Amino acid sequence: MTAVDLAAVIVAVVCLATVVVLTVAVVSLVRTLRELRAVVDDLRDSALPMVDDLRTTVTKADAELHRVDRVIGRAERIAATADHASRLTYRAFAPPLIKGLSLVSGAGQAGRRLRERRRHRRALDLAGSGGSAAAGVVSTEVEPAAERRRAAHGPGLPDPGGRTRTRGRRR
Question: What is the enclosing helix (H) or strand (E) of 124?
């Protein structure tokens, strides 16, 4: 055997080994592709119904969102109407209510002043009628009231005697 024959045999063996390795690789690749095709078919069989369910769910959710949007719009209109009604009610009832409260307050102040005048007159009547022990007690009650009025109006100011209104304006 010559060197050329030996080289030809070695090349033939290497080519044969390469063909065997490539055949094994192709068979393995075909097996992997079949498994991949089976997995894709299973995925398609399970995914398509899920996509249909998802589409149905999205359609229902969209319808619910439109319904909620309408409900919120109605609620906003109702809130605006209620706000407007409460403002109108406030405008309608607040001035008479304030006037009524000020009338009641003024009547209370007038009643207190009348009671003070009656007490003062009684004290003067009792003091002028003869100096009894009861007159001394009443006159000591009247004097602190007059001092309180003077203190409320400040030092050096004349005592209005309960006749002049000191708080607020007259209407």
Answer: helix 3-128
pLDDT digits (tens, 9 = 90+) for 100-109: 999 999 999 9
- Tell me the CA end-to-end span of the chain in Å, nearest whole number: 143
Q: pTM above 0.85? A: no
Angle ∠(42,43,47) on CA atoms, nearest 5 = 125
Tally of CB atoms within 10 A around 123:
19
What whole-number distance in Å separates Cα of residue 17 and Cα of residue 27? 15
Taking the C-alpha atoms of residue 168 and residue 171, their distance in angstroms, rounded to an integer, is: 9
**Which residue ranges make up each domain of the chain?**
3-153
DSSP 14-44: HHHHHHHHHHHHHHHHHHHHHHHHHHHHHHH
